[in-house]
Amino acid sequence: MDTILLTIDNKPVVVKKGITILEAASSTGVHIPTLCHMKLDDLNIENRPGGCRICVVEVEGRRNLAPACCTEVADGMVINSHSIRVINARQTVLELILSDHPADCLICAKSGKCDLQDMAHHLGIREIHYKGEQSTYREDTSPAIIRDVDKCIMCRRCEMMCNEVQTVGVLSAINRGFNAVVSPAFEMNLDHSVCTYCGQCVAVCPTGALTEVDQTAHVVRALSDSSKTVIVQTAPAVRAALGEEFDMDPGTLVTGKLAAALRRLGFDYVFDTDFAADLTIMEEGTEMLNRLSRFLEGDKSVKLPILTSCCPAWVKFFEHQFPQLKDIPSTARSPQQMFGSIAKTYFAEKMGIKREDLVVVSIMPCVAKKYECGRDEFKVNDNPDVDYAITTRELAGLIKLANINFSRLPNEEFDLPLGESTGAGVIFGTTGGVIEAAVRTAYELYTKKPLPKLDFNELRGMDGIRQATIDFGGFPLKIGIAHGLGNARKLLAKIESGESEFHAIEIMSCPGGCIGGGGQPYHHGNAEILKKRQMAIYQEDSNKKIRKSHENPYIIQLYEEFLGKPMSEKAHHLLHTQYFDRTSGSSH
Amino acid sequence: MTDYKIHLLICGGTGCKAAESDEIKKQLKHWIEEVGLEDEAQVVFTGCFGFCEKGPIVKVLPDNTFYVGVTPADAEDIVKEHLIKGRTVPRLLYKDPITNQQISDSKGMDFYKKQTRIALRNCGFINPESIDEYISRDGYAAMGKCLTEYSPEETIKEIKESGLRGRGGGGFPTGLKWEITRKSEADQKYVVCNADEGDPGAFMDRSILEGDPHSVIEAMAICGYCIGADKGLVYIRAEYPLAIERLKTALNQAREYGLLGDDILGTGFNFEIEIRLGAGAFVCGEETALIHSMEGLRGEPTFKPPFPSVSGYLGKPTNVNNVETFANIPVIINKGASWFNKIGTENSKGTKVFALAGKINNVGLIEVPMGTTLREVIYDIGGGIKDGKGFKSVQTGGPSGGCLTKDFLDTPIDYDNLLAAGSMMGSGGMIVMDEGDCMVGIAKFYLEFTLEESCGKCSPCRIGNKRLYEILEKITNGNGEEVDIERLKLLSNVIKDTSLCGLGQTSPNPVLSTILNFEDEYLAHVNEKKCPSGQCKALLKYDIIEDLCTGCTLCFRNCPVGAITGERRQPHYIDQLLCIKCGVCYEKCKFNAIKLS
Fold first, then answer.
1. Is B189 found in the same domain as B72?
2. Which residue, A135, A315, A351, A580, has fewest beta-carbon neighbours within 10 Å?
3. pLDDT in the model for residue B175
4. Beta strand B58-61 with B6-11: parallel, antiparallel or unpaired?
């Protein structure tokens, strides 16, 4: 490895060639503050923005200060990261940014989690010497994301996620000079754009400029309405991240405490989306096998590969960008929607509760789920199957609001029947998990033999695009996996060009899958946290007594008592959906 | 210029066209036909003569008579008097402002005497729409020489030895840039001509493209040959329609003559040029921003390195040079580096084109050897300050430059001297201020420009310049405090120190240089709430001197806001709260009874 010698803050250090001053400093324990920079190496994206100018340092022999995030190290470079000149420059630049930022921190949705606020603290800003006009813009509210553009500091992290990582291309800088701001083209509203509501912009926004639509007040109102039965489902990825909101180490599993907290919040029944994930496997796995068998029998009308359809942002992405492929994804609804549908039919009937008196709340790692539960296909007489979807972060807020001492809660179980799940349901929370769960069930149904081993390590990992071939009793099943919509686009392009042939593909919109969802505790671009959450998910899976969806006794009971069999007419009606070509403009 | 005995050259630059030179051309033709001289005399549209102050200009060859301020109605006299009777038309001749003598030959005018025209050699001499005329003045000879006699390395060596530095503002050695781009290995390279001229008042690039487009085409091809590129792109702002038209015509002619395209002059060298239109953003003159704009991205700069010579247009090595830089190349090849590097100073060789503007008698486009003093430019060529007023300051380098005082008048102009003086060469804008100009207002004017033109990418430029402007506004509105001057300095230095590109790194220069050189004016605004030049309206006060006021009511009747009251034949009174300082009363009063303070 090529290394070079340089001096940072009077200390000689040896670093790799070709890295930035920021990386060099961080490798030697010198912290240089940044605002616009994100570490995206794990997503294979070189991020050298150089926009905010907070990370400037003094480099000997250079006329002006150098932005550490985009200046490459050179042999013999002498760097001073904290000279008076540097500190004065950083403070002045931050004062300038603050001079064009609303000072409503006390009531801002981002208060306490705001990078800008932290930076002002870190740099000891006590006065803004350069006051003047502040830019004001129209607020933009969509079903999932709110843009409070006055708070945009033009760091353009969201633009990086939207364009480079997700390749959705909704957010970019518009206008010039002082009026420059990040926005959809022509200052269009998000809900008129091709935005997928993946929420990765929200996940990286350093300020309160981009936040999820907060629905906690609706949930509180429902919980205090004695005429309603309020039930809750919680997605697999939530239990692997919620603890972070209560200062627990990333990767701490809080399944039992989560159930306890939800019960103390007053939910009448505390259920698990993992149950619905098992149900999804039954439907999607069966659909996959059907298509596969017909394909192998030579039926030319069958389209392969089958694509997963659990992720609402992914669904909206292909509806906008690849409508010609809308017949390929599985018609199976997402676990959230399967749960809602079963809750408001099977469960409601069983308990003798009228549909309109049953409120279904879901706790999701995702902001797109807010949009998904509002889609018309998932309503009966205008009553939605899922009434409110709140994020992991919103749930943490509710728990704090209700004075629940989360870390001291006992571990409790989910309620039955919709709270029982298998390890297969749990791994839905990470990239590769849905397809692994599907393989576990499809293999046994197809080969009629028990699986020799349950862990498919070939499907696991964090690479953006992965492929594997699974031996299905002599038949090589080709599987593709992509997480991050940019990777999904690449995979779809390969399918369209005929370059790659797959039988089944799993796609999740967010880097890492749901564990890295837009509604999760802020991980500030640190992929290490994602890896720890992923480990927790697989840990939960291996702890489960039952690890294959088709062995979930309550799933078996559901089919026996209510649905008949997978892909039955009733199942089709309640658990499957259709997709729309959204290229003509309307995104509803 | 073929069979005609008489040539009437008429300026076809944008400025003169705006002053009806099209109609003048039509009228000249009409009268030539009328008197039956159509086989003897031809009317030719040329590029800019440079002496815009006196435009439209008509030059009659062979006797070199230089008519100024011509109108369409003068065409008849020029034809009937000059062409038929052989008498010049005295009323259209240039009159020396000092000696009051009429000068008929442009060579005798001070405006031209001290100029050396290399980049502008053909402007005003040839028909820019005729490749033959360009060729008749050694056009494409340099390209031929390079392709057949010189290797790319030898050509680069020649350019390096000439000492030519980039004329777009940075002053980077041109030959070195070519060499670096040549050494960057890639399957495709590009030559880009930066014609995104954006300095307020500067129009040298436009004039060269309008007046001599082939010189740029030829130079780009030479550059392509040197760096190993077969593709050239001219990035030009869409608001230069005439330059674009002439360039298109020239490109087509060059293709027809086999001077562009495949296997040029049978040497196996291929070169093609495409035009890319910009939307006229100042920051797109910065090469990375320019390249992004050509790529269809937002026109904003990115961090260098990588420099375009390593990774430019579409990620390929790209050599970006300014129009004026290119226009020098063919001459350097034809006459040799040793000829070129004798002109100029130690580290700045050759000439520089300046657009003279502001309070100067001879507004126009000039080209002088490096090392000419500001005094020579302003007084000898520029004819001194307008209306006999005193010189106050000269701003070089456009909005990124600084304002220099009379102490610098004898400074020889070159890259290093201007930088040392606190200004810069820039692309060659030169705006002269007289004693009536308010320097705080001037700083504000330039900042308003950079404010508009900042791309908004980096925080110090986006917000810092806005805050600088606001402080200047506060001062010119009479609300400034002494601490504001200190803040201007502190903030200016941080903006310079932290901004991403040249725009932000230089935008505070007008502020800093005016504070440095004219601090007393700032202090007067701040402490005495007075604008010494009487330019800052908010600081003006109009009063009526009772003793002189006759009560004629003229001011009362003309005041647009009803701020003046008073009985007929009684002294009037101005209500300061209502007064908008428009100055109408001051102009109208016949008894000097309105006092301005």
1. no
2. A351
3. 97
4. antiparallel
